[in-house]
Design a protein that fits this description.
Chain A is mainly α. Chain A has helices at about 1-30, 30-35, 50-55, 60-90, 95-105, 110-125, 130-155, 160-170, 175-200, 205-210, 220-225, 235-265. Chain A folds into two domains: about 1-50, no CATH class; about 50-265, MetI-like fold. Classes of the chains: A mainly alpha (about 270), B mainly alpha (about 300), C alpha+beta (about 350), D alpha/beta (about 400). Chain B: Belongs to the binding-protein-dependent transport system permease family.
Amino acid sequence: MKRYVLMVIALIVTAVYLFPLYWMYITVFKSAAEMFQFPPTFWPQQAESHLRQVFEERNMARFLWNSLLIACGTTGVTLLVGTGAAYALAQVQNRWTSAAIFAVLVLQALPSSLMVTPIFTAFKGLGLLETPRFAVVIAQITKTLPFYIVLCRASFVQVPRELRDAALVDGASPMRAFFGVILPLAVNGILVSAILVFLQSFGEYVYARSLILDDQYQTATVGLSAFVGATKTDWIGIMTYSAIFVTPILIAFMLLQRKIVAGLTAGALK
Amino acid sequence: MNKLLSRFPRENGFEITLAGFALLYLLLFAGLPLLYNIVLSFQQVDLMEPATLLRPFAGLANYRDVFSRPEAGQVLSNTLQFVGLSLLFQVVIGFLLAMLFLQDFPLATFMRGLFLAGWIMPGLVVGVIWKLLFAGDYGVLNHVLTQMGILHSKIFWLSDPQWSLYAVIIANVWLGVPFNMLLLSVGLAAIPADLYEAAELDGANAWQRFWGITLPMMKSTLGAVVSLGAIMTMQQFDLLAALTQGGPANSSQVAQYWSWQLSLQTFEVSAGSAVATLMMVLVLIVAVIYVRSTRNERMV
Amino acid sequence: MDQATHRIQIENLSKAYGPVQVLKDINISVPEGRFVALIGPSGCGKSTLLRTIAGLEKITGGTLRIDGQIVNDMPPRKRDVAMVFQSYALYPHMNIEKNMSYSLRLKRSAPEAIRQSIAGVAETLGLGHLLERMPRQLSGGQRQRVAMGRAIVRNPKVFLFDEPLSNLDAALRVHMRAEIRKLHHRLHATSVYVTHDQIEAMTMADHVVVLRAGQVEQQGAPLALYEKPANKFVAGFIGSPAMNFIEGVVGPDAQCVLFGGAARQQVELGRALPPGQPVWIGLRPEHLRLQGEGQSVQGVVDSVESTGSMTFIALNVDGAPQPLLVAHPGTVTAAMGDVLKLYIAPQQIHVFDKTTELAL
Amino acid sequence: MNIRISALCATLTLALSSAASLAATLSVWAVDEPDNYTEKMAREFAKLHPDIQLQVRKVGFSSLNDEAMRAVMSGNGPDVIPIDNPNTAMFAAKNALLDLTPYLAKSKVIDVKQIYPGPLKNASWNGKVYAIPRGANTLALYYNEDMFKAAGLDPDKPPQSWDELYADAKKLTNAQKNVYGLAFSAVGDEEGVFQFLPFIQATGADWDKLNDPGAARAAAFWQKLLDEKLASPDTLSHRQSEAAATFINSNAAMDINGPWELMAVEKGAKFKWRVALLPPEKAGGTRASALGEQSHAVLRSAKNPQAAFAFLEYMYSQRNRNWNEFGMLPPSKDTVTKDPKWPQAYKTFNEQMQYARPRGPNPQWPKVSKAISTAVQSVLTHQADPKKAMDQAYKTVEATKH
C-alpha cells in the first residue's frame, strides 16, 4: 500500500516538474491566437504545426549536424583529457592535488560571455577561427573539463585504493593498473559524466555565437536565438524550433536513462 | 613547472602526467583569459584599440567607479539572493527527490529518469519556455495559481520589480534540481543500509535517523553539490538573457549579467572587468569550501 | 648466515611523510621459507612496513633487499612479491578465474600454463567450482581463499599478508589460520604476515616482530618473546590474557620486591637487584595459582567469570593499576569481596625497570 | 518565383562548396530581419557578379554591437556590417569604419544629396559619411477599427493628443476580455528608448535635454498608462514585436509600432485596422517620431573595399522595392514606390517620417540609451520619481560628452 502512495506522490511531483516541457510541446500545435488566449488552453483546439516548415526554413538539419559534431568533439576530448586528470586527483591526495582541484574550479569562474572576448582575440591570433567548429570545441572544453573532472573524480574516489595496490603487486604498471582495473570500475561514473558533458555542450550558445563566423558551421542554439529579434518574436516558431531541437536528445536520453540511473545508484562498490 | 614537478613524490609520475596535461590546458585556455580580465580591471580600456596589454594603469579607479554606481548595492544583494536562494531550493528539493526516488515503489527508476530530462535542456530553450510560462497576461502560471486560489490577481513575473528576481530564481531552480538530485542520489545510495538498521534498533525515528545518519554521511557529497551548484549558478547567463536581461530597472540584475552588459553593451570594459574580478573572489571562496569538503572523503 | 640465503633483508629502514616519522631504523632479516609475523597495536606502522616491502610505499632511508638485490626504488611489479589484502581487493569486474590469472596474464604466460596453474591452485584451495563466479557472489571465506589463491598462483619470491583474517568470523578465522599454516608448510614460501592479533602471530609464525610507534621493540621466536620479553610493552602485548603489572620497589635485601602501600606485601625474585630501585613486576595470569605453597600475593576478589573450562578471577591488589587477572582451569567458587592468595614461583616473575621499562 | 528560388539555391550551393579565392571574397554580416533583407540582397548581388565569393553570417540584432566590436578589435571583421543607425557614430568615432565620402564622390549610383537628412545624419560623423542607410522607418499608431467602433469611438478620428490617447485607451480597455487599450514597448534596451524618445521630443525635451520638465511629463504619462492598466504591465518586458503580437491577436486595441510589422499585421489580424500619426502632447502641438533602420557600413579592415562599396551601391539601387517587399520606407527623395501596398499605412508612415528625428549622434550612444531606459523603467516601476530619474539620466548623458 505504502508503495502505491509513494508512487502517486512521485507521479504528481514528476508531472508538475515536467509541465514546462509539456507546455513547449503543446504550444507547437497552437495557433498564435490561441497562444495569447487567457485562460490558456491545455490542449490545442485546432491543432496545426509548422514542424516541417521551421525545420526547412531554418536550415535546422545543418545546424543540428554542427551542434552534434561540436558536442561529440567536446565530449571526446573532455573524456580523453579529463578522465586521467580526475583519476590522478582522486588517487593522489596531498596539498598539491588540493591546489590543483582548487585551480580547476577557479579557472572556470567566469561565465563564457565574459571569457569570449579574450578567447576570440587569442584564437584569431592562433588561426583557430579558420576552423570554427574546432575552435568552439577548444573553447567549450574549458567549461566542460572542470565540470567533468569534479564529477568523475567522485567516482574514482569510490574505487578502493587497495585494488590499485593489488594490481601493482600483481605486476601491473601504474598505467596498466589504471586501464585494466580502475577504469573499468569507474566506467559508470565516466559514462554518466560524459553524457552530461555531451548535453551541456549540445546546448552551448555563447562560444558558438561568437567564434563561428560562417553560418554554414553555426549551431542549433544560435539558430534559435535568431528567432528572438528586434522586429519579430514568433513564439510558436520558437517553441517549434525548441521542440525539434530537444526531442532527439530527450529520446536518446529516454533510451539511455535506465542505464544511466542504474549505473549511478549501483555505482558504490562494496 | 619542472621544479614544481620534482616536488611530487616520484612514484606518482603517471598520475602527475595525466593531471598535468589537463591543468596545462585549463591554464592556457581559461587561465590566460581570466588573467586578461583581471588586468583589464586595473586599466583604462578602449575596446577598439588593438589587443594589447599595455594600457594606462588605473589603480583601483575602476572598482571605485563600479561601487559608486547607484545600482551597485542592488546588484550585490540580487547576486547574493540569486545564488543563495537558487542553491537552497535546488539542494533541498534535490535532496527530497533523491530520497523519494530511493524508496522502493513501482516506476521509481523510470520517473527519476524522466526528471533528469529537465537538465538536458539548453539554458536558452529553458529560458524561452519559462518566458512563455511567466507571461503576465496570457501565461499559464498565473492561470494555474489563480485557479488554485493562491493568487487573486495576475502577477507580472518578468515586469514587476518585486518578482522579477524571483522569477529568474524559480527558472534556475527548475534547471538545477535534476543535477542536485543526481549527485545526491549517488551519495545516498552509498550509505550502507545496516547503518539505518542499527539506528532503528537503537530506537531512532525517521527524523532522528535523517539528522543522525543521513546528513553526516552526506557531508562531503553536500559540500560538492553546494559548491558546484554555486559555481554553476554564478555562471548562469543564457537564462538571464532570455528572461529579464536584468530588468526592469535592474531589479533582477546580477553580477555576471551586469558585468557582461558593462563590457559588451555599453562598452565600459574596465568597469565590466572589475565586476568580473569581484565575482572571481566569490568563486574563490566557494572553491575553498569545495576543496575542504573533498578531504576525508575516503572512508576506506 | 650470508645475505644470499635471506629472502628479505631490511637495514636501518625509515619512512617519513614530511616531518612525520612513521618507521624508524628498522632491521629485519627474513631467511628463505620463513614465516614472519609483524605485530603491534594499530598505528604502529606494521602495515606501512609491509607496504614498503611490496613497493607500494617509498622508503626514505636505509636499504631494503630482496634476494640480495637492493629494491629501494624498484616498482612493485618488478619485485615478484604477492600480497593478500585485508579487504581481499578482488577485482570486482573479473570472475574468479580472471582474478587469479591476472598477474600471469600480465606476464604473458602461455594460456595453457595459466589454465593449469589456476586449476592446480583452485584444487588445493577447493575453489574449483567457483571459477566462473564474480567476487560479489562469494562468501567472505571464499573470497579470502581466492585472495590467497591469487597470490599462490604466481609462485612469488615472497608472500605478504596484510591482516587477511580480520574480516572473518571467529570460527572461520581459526580454521583459516590452520589452513594458511598448512599451506606454508607445503609451499615453504617466504611470508611476512601483518596482524594485530597476537594469537595469530604466536600460532602461525616462526619469527615474530613486535612494533610500536614505528620501531621494532623486540623480535624472535614466538616462545622466546613469551618467555623473555625484552620490555614491559612486549610483555604486555604478547600472551593472552595480558600480563598483570604491579608497581613496587626492590627491597633492602636485593632479593625481593616490596609493594602494596600500607598493606605491605612482598615477593621473592630468586635473583639480586639493586636495593631501592623502583620496578614493575609482571605476573602472567596463567602462572598464578589459587592453591600451592611458597610465596603468594594477596588480593580482594573484584569479579569472577567462568567459561566452564576456565575461570577468570580479577582481584584488587594495592600497587596494581589494573585488577590482577587469574586464569584458572576448571571452575572455582569465589565471591566478590573474598580475600584470596595467589601463589607464584619466583622464576615466573618478570621484573622491569620503572622508568626504562626494560626487563631486568 | 520558383526559378528565382532555385537560382538562389544554386548560388548558395556554389558559394558553400567552391574553394575560396581571397581576392574576390565578400564577407557580409546580416541581421535576420525584416524578411532577411541584407542576405537576400547579398545573394542577388553575388548572382550578378559570379566572380565574387560570398560569405554571409547572420548576427542577432541584440548582439550586433558586441560582435562587431570584437571583430574590429581582433581585425577579423567582415567587409560589410549592418549597424543600427544611432550606433554609426560610435563605430566611426572609434575609427572602425571606412570613410565613404571619396567613394560617394565618384559614385554614379548614390547621390548623397537625395538621401533624407535624418538618415544621412545618422550615417555620418564629423561631416563624413560612414554608412549608407538601407531605408528608414518610424513609429506610428496602429489601431483596431472594429474595437474602435465597438467602444463607440470614431475610427476616422484617432487620438490627436496624449489626453485623447489616454481617454481612448481607457475606453478600449476591457479587462474581462483581456484587452488593453494600448500596446507599446518599454523593454530595458534600445527598443524601449526608441519608443520613448518620440514622447519626450513631443514635449520639447530630447535625449540630450532630459532635464527639461517635458521628459518627466512623458515618463509620468507612460507611468499613468501602466498604473491604470491601459497597457499591459508586461510592457516593461515586451519587445516591440511582442507588443505587435498582442495587437494582432486582439489583446490590445492600439499599438505603437513601425512599418516592419505591416506584413505580420496583415497576415495575422482578423479585424480591420488602420495606422495613424503619433499624437502630440497637446492637440496641434509638436509632432515627433523616432527614426530607425539599419545602415550598412564597410569596415576599415575590409579586404575588398571596392566590392564592398559596390554591394552598398547595389542595395541602394534596389530602394524602390523597400516598401512592398521589406516594409521599409525609402532612404531618399528620389525613390519611386510603384503601387504601394497598404496605401493608408504608406501615406501615414510617409507623413510621420517628416517628424522623425535621428537619435544622437553620440559616439557613446549605448551608454546614453542604457541611462534613458533605466530611468524610464525605474519611473514605470515607481522606484524613482520622474523628475529625479530624468535628472539622473541627464547627468549620465552629460558625462558621455566629455
